[in-house]
Write a structure and sequence with these properties.
The complex is a heterodimer.
Chain A (H helix, E strand, L loop, with lengths): L15 H11 L7 E4 L5 H8 L5 E5 L2 H10 L7 E2 L15 H13 L8 H28 L7 E4 L2 H6 L6 E4 L8 H11 E2 L10 H11 L4 E6 L10 E5 L8 E5 L5 E3 L21 E5 L2 H11 L11 E7 L2 E8 L13 E8 L7 H9 L2 H11 L5 E7 L13 E6 L2 E7 L5 H11 L4
Parallel strand pairs in A: 1-2, 1-5, 2-4, 5-7, 8-10, 14-15
Antiparallel strand pairs in A: 3-6, 7-9, 8-9, 11-12, 12-13, 13-14, 15-17, 16-17
Chain B lengths: L1 H8 L5 H18 L5 E5 L16 H14 L7 E4 L4 E5 L1 H9 L5 E6 L5 H13 L6 H10 L3 H7 L27 E6 L6 H11 L4 E6 H18 L4 H13 L10 E3 L10 E3 L8 H4 L6 H14 L3 H13 L3
Parallel strand pairs in B: 2-4, 5-6
Antiparallel strand pairs in B: 1-4, 2-3, 7-8
Helix pairs in contact in B: 3-4, 9-10
Classes of the chains: A alpha/beta, B alpha/beta.
Chain lengths: 439, 329
């Protein structure tokens, strides 16, 4: 039996739209006991309790969920601190809300524990300094958030076994969490810090999901979600919810009747500058754009098949007061620039015009000292190089050739890098007029 | 039955020619009935799109349109074109044509006008198709929307329950750990050539939401960026606050350098003589002398005893002790 880390948490697997769908369906659950698998942060339970649905039976495997589940079910939950370096935590795990609040805080702060980087040291010190007040505030938040929520039972163990054992005349619900990377370290720290009666259970694979569905669909009412369509449940779709442009839609299936869809919608705003048409003249200048204005320009001038992403910084490029292009840069924390450039240019678009090689002028402007200054101001660090990607199957991108250097070639994409601040906007324009207009 | 028999007898090879002949006949009949427009079956890639289009479509809407066309394998609303004798120019339905191409449709039906049209007339047609559209009564729209209980058909309809405010209220109080509170500090750098610095400062202050703001010349910004950049690179951190905190640690290790701010050379003394006089008479941090704000407890006890023994205030006592020491007592 392979065992999943018990500390795997409740990472927002039930978004706001899913909550709404559950609240609507809950009206049909009255009079039946409800068995909830993968309770996580007990979001389902809180919604159902608010709608007056019960009795509620919950299940999960993580340390935090098990502690909270025991509390809500009125059962004891033996918990100890086994890392002597954190022995001060022993004063903060008295049974009930104090212990749960400590575990909840530890899911955040142990990320910074026992690490040597100044950032982690700084955060750890800040949490330690403020621990008493943070703990008290967390207890109050838990109290308020869990008001009115009581469980008939809590099962620490495998979700398939738990729901299989539910009576036929019951409601069974499972929103299996989407596991995210980066929790192994936290898991190790939580496990190393606390001692508790940790359950064992099989890895939740696609086969286990299939087994889960088979058990659930024998019950009177069932509701399950997945972040991809489930072929075997076709015809039972009750909702498809998508909250972000780049997030996958979550599919909700049930034998109750409902049809809800939610889709992300971009905000757009008018872009007030006239556009360059047949000709252009200097001076070249940069103007700030809002995110919704960038969305408008991307909708107008880029392939509508490109899924847009949010930018850290975006601005328009004008020639003689007329807009001829737009530039957008991604947040360095997104990791697109890691290791090969100081700033990643996610969009460099030219407006539609009859001016030849206008896109090359946009790229030339992107490498100007003026753009560099804006990037340095925003990123608060030196920006020596700008990188970007041309999505193409061709060996070179004519748009970047001669202005930026080909850095790497991957299937369907070419990464280019250029020297930031290699010229001023005026020099870039002069270069473009000299070499591109007459070429 | 006649139509079915005819359809059954048309092979895939002959279909384009048959359709072409049928459309020619139909167009002739329409003309005889006084209808000004004609129908054509064309490759969407052969259509010339508008060189200037004020109408745009966001990614998500376009994606929905492509999915619908892929499902239907046809356009259910025909683009309107102007045929100049050689090329079909799309006056209305540019996004439908693009979506048809994206959906892999090889042939689409278009409605077209082949009469001579001026540029202005073509622009007027283009604008009218986007401007002369109706509005939705939200109540009736919701009622119609509620008639659809098939999720795929709701997708096809192009609306969604969130946009139509059809979702149930499921707001909950947050169950999460309390977060650290942060205080924002902004550094504002203005170009040196700005003459009315006071006015600029007021304007800049109004533009930021923070409790403290520091006004520094633009050249100082360059120095700060350099310092931040060096610190970030050295410690491999992207966090600006951490970098500033590291810079402060370096600063704290060089507190005695602050003496340059108040330690002036006595002009009457020999050049090598370290004795100096103050550059100003404001209060200065003791750390500039001691290199630290803290002293060992043992020394603190000794100093406190000495101060108490002197019967003076702490500063006066320190001054007296220093004078005595320098006088060789």
């Amino acid at each position: 039996m392979r065992v999943l880390p018990s500390a795997f948490m409740f990472i927002g697997s039930i978004n706001q739209d899913m909550r709404s769908v559950l609240a609507e369906l809950a009206l049909g659950f009255r009079g039946l006991p409800v068995y909830i698998g993968c309770s996580g942060n007990f979001t389902c339970e809180r919604i159902l309790a608010r709608e007056g649905i019960g009795a509620l039976h919950s299940n999960d495997v993580s340390l935090y969920s098990c502690a909270l589940g025991a509390l809500l079910a009125g059962k004891p939950f033996p918990l100890g601190v086994q890392d002597d370096r954190l022995d001060w935590l022993r004063d903060w795990i008295s049974p009930g809300l104090p212990a749960v609040a400590t575990l909840l805080l530890c899911t955040t702060i142990l990320e910074f524990w026992d690490r040597d980087h100044p950032y982690h040291r700084r955060m750890w010190a800040a949490y330690l300094r403020r621990w008493p007040e943070l703990h008290a505030a967390t207890v109050e938040k838990l109290k308020a958030g869990l008001e009115g929520v009581r469980l008939a039972s809590y099962h620490a163990g495998d979700v398939v076994d738990f729901l299989a054992a539910a009576p036929d005349e019951s409601v069974v619900i499972a929103f299996p969490p989407t596991y995210k990377a980066g929790y192994e370290r936290l898991y190790k720290k939580l496990q190393a810090t606390f001692s508790w009666d940790s359950p064992t259970y099989p890895l939740f694979t696609a086969d286990r999901f299939q087994a889960l569905v088979e058990r659930m669909t024998t019950k009177r009412v069932w509701l399950v979600s997945r972040d991809e369509p489930v072929a075997g449940l076709a015809g039972f779709e009750v909702a498809s919810v998508q909250t972000g442009m780049r997030s996958k839609p979550v599919w909700m299936y049930s034998n109750r009747k409902l049809a809800r869809i939610t889709l992300p919608r971009q905000k757009t705003e008018p872009v007030p500058w006239p556009r360059v048409e047949a000709d252009l003249a200097g001076p070249i200048e940069l103007v700030p754009l809002t995110g919704p204005q960038l969305n408008t320009l991307r909708s107008e001038y880029l392939s509508p098949l490109i899924t847009p992403a949010g930018a850290l910084l975006q601005f328009g490029v004008l020639a003689g007061g007329r807009l001829f292009g737009a530039l957008a840069y991604s947040n360095p924390n997104a990791g697109l620039s890691a290791g090969w450039c100081d700033s990643y240019m996610m969009t460099d678009l030219a407006v539609k015009s009859s001016v030849p090689r206008l896109s090359k002028l946009v790229v030339a402007a992107a490498l100007s000292a003026e753009v560099r200054a804006l990037l340095e101001e925003k990123q608060a660090c030196r920006v020596e190089s700008v990188g970007t990607t041309a999505f193409t199957d061709r060996p070179v991108s004519m748009k970047y050739r001669g202005v930026m250097e080909l850095y790497s070639r991957k299937p369907g994409m070419l990464n280019y890098v250029g020297r930031a601040g290699r010229w001023t906007l005026a020099e870039a324009f002069a270069w473009w007029q000299r070499t591109q207009r007459q070429a | 039955m006649v139509a079915e028999d005819t359809a059954a007898s048309v092979t895939a090879e002959r279909a384009p020619a048959v359709a072409g002949e049928a459309l020619a006949q139909l167009n002739a009949s329409l003309a005889a009935l006084g209808q000004p427009f004609k129908l054509a079956l064309v490759d969407p890639r052969s259509l010339k799109e508008l060189d200037k289009n004020a109408h745009y479509m966001t990614h998500e809407v376009f994606k929905g349109l492509v999915q619908n066309l892929a499902r239907d394998r046809a356009l259910s609303s025909l683009p309107f074109c102007w045929f100049d004798g050689t090329i079909y120019h799309t006056l209305s339905g540019n996004h439908r044509v693009k979506a048809a191409i994206a959906a892999g449709l090889e042939l689409i039906l278009v409605l077209y006008d082949d009469r001579p049209l001026t540029r202005q007339e073509r622009v007027a047609v283009q604008l009218s198709h986007n401007a002369l559209v109706g509005k939705d009564d939200p109540t009736l729209l919701k009622e119609l929307w509620d008639e659809i209980d098939d999720l795929a058909l709701k997708h096809y309809a192009g609306l969604d329950d969130k946009a139509l405010k059809q979702l149930a209220d499921a707001s909950l109080k947050s169950v999460s750990d309390a977060a650290l509170s942060y205080k924002a500090v902004s550094f504002l750098f203005l170009p040196e050539e700005v003459e009315a610095l006071d006015a600029a400062f007021q304007k800049a202050m109004a533009a930021v939401v923070c409790e403290d703001a520091y006004l520094l010349p633009l050249r100082e910004f360059e120095r700060l960026i350099d310092a931040l950049d060096k610190t970030k690179s050295s410690w491999n951190t992207k966090n600006g606050a951490t970098a500033l905190f590291l810079i402060l640690e370096v600063f704290e290790r060089h507190l005695t350098d602050l003496a340059e701010g108040w330690l002036g050379r006595n002009p009457e003394a020999e050049p090598e003589t370290p004795l100096s006089k103050p550059k100003h008479h404001q209060r200065v941090p003791l750390a500039g002398v001691l290199g630290t704000d803290k002293v060992p407890a043992k020394l603190a006890v000794l100093l406190k005893r000495a101060v108490e023994h002197s019967g003076k205030g702490p500063l006066e006592a320190l001054e007296a002790m220093a004078h005595k020491y320098l006088a060789g007592e």
